[in-house]
Amino acid sequence: MKNGELIGEMIAWEAGEPKRINHFLKVYGFAKAIASREQLSSATMNLVETAAILHDIGIRPALEKHGSSAGALQEEEGETESFIKNWTEKLRLSGSGICKPYLLAGGPSSQL
């Protein structure tokens, strides 16, 4: 999935929440600007951009389930198997690529 498509998915995911949409777009813009000056490989640049787009993806499920967007709750909800599977399919990842949405959603690498 190209970043433009991913941004569209995240805008749909955050429908009705313009502050969160504006926030992830701002983070994406800053991350892209900073990373572009670092002479990163295209694969690393794509990972930086993807991480910036998805960095707060656990807020919505945390709010829906717990009424709070506390960091630990975002991580807890972002780590569920169904949540990871859904976003892995959206990102069209397979094999070792499944680690990317897990880590981006706040999953600690020690649990992979």
Q: Would you kindly provide a brief summary of this structure?
A:
The chain has 112 residues and is mainly α.
> How many beta-strand segments?
0
Helix content: 55-70%
Major sheet details: none
CA radius of gyration: 14 Å
Descriptive notes:
The protein is mainly alpha-helical. Helices cover 68% and strands 0% of the residues. It contains seven helices and no strands. The protein has helices spanning 3-13, 18-36, 42-54, 59-66, 71-78, 81-91, 99-104. The longest helix is centred in the first third of the chain and has 19 residues, at 18-36. The chain is globular and about 40 Å long. The two termini are 23 Å apart.
Task: Give a topology summary.
Elements: H1 3-13, H2 18-36, H3 42-54, H4 59-66, H5 71-78, H6 81-91, H7 99-104
Helix pairs in contact: 1-3, 2-3, 4-5
Defining key terms:
mainly alpha; 7 helices; globular; disordered C terminus; single chain; 112 residues
